[in-house]
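Deliverable D5.2: sample structural annotation.
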Amino acid sequence: MSERKVLTKYYPPDFDPSLVGRSRQPKQTGPKVQTVRLMAPFSLRCSSCGEYMYKGRKFNARKETPADERYLNIQIYRFYIRCTRCSAEIVFRTDPKNQDYAVEKGAKRNTEPWRRGLEGELEETDEQRLDRIEREMADENGEIAQAEERNAMAELEQKTADAKREMAVADALDEIRSRNARLERAQREGGVDIESVLGGRGLSEEEERRRREEEEDAEAARKAFEFARLQQRLEEAPADEVLGLPGIPAAAAANGEGSSGSSSSAGVGASSALSTAATDSNPTSAGATDMPPPTFKRQVKKKKDHSALLGIKKKQSLV
């Protein structure tokens, strides 16, 4: 296999370099022409066959550099391509004035919606351009002045609103301080309860009635719980302790001892005696009763057989 990159060349024995003459061609007159590979900078349509060629289509083009065509010392280049369908020649050039390209021959540029309305501006003269620039600068200066004026007015309004809010807060604080000082002075001089004054102020009849009902319900619940607690204590306590309770007659206790067959009848008798004693001792509140004195005697309660309740039978020991 031969080498891909040949470093030495073969010279025959009879080679005479003097016989090889240098071929000189005449200098190229006219613009410089190069063969380049480019992509279409815009979408266009061929004038001969109507073929559409879109932006980005690659072409083998001839690039021409005319020496006498410049814009503000910027070189203008001309490109020659051929239609992909009919091979008609299409020519376009650079347009540094508008920072774009311009079609010269063989095709027509497609309509671009974002370029509508710019053709008149592209055709304007220098005087029209100067007038337009001056008008835009004047409008911009006027808008800036108006914006500064609006900003100044908005800042002034904000400062005024802040000052009003601070004054309102200061007035509210002064009013609160003066009211607190007045209430403290009244409490110190006449012994008036501030909480009662503030609590009773501004309550409507509906709120007062609701508050009264809540207090009555709370009192009734308290009495009911006290009665139930005392009744449970009487049921669990022995007879000698029941005799020692204040307000319970001995006959009621004796009746309770005589009926030892059922504990429920003793509890009912003790409960009725307790209610009678409580009614006699405190006629104002029928449900209120005096609490019995605490006892520190240890009471041994019989343990309940939970296994029997659950239906579990214990096995008898074999020993």
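Annotation notes: Strands lie at 32-39, 44-46, 52-53, 58-65, 70-71, 74-75, 78-82, 89-95, 100-105, 107-109. The radius of gyration is 58 Å.
The annotation will be released with the project's public dataset once the embargo ends.
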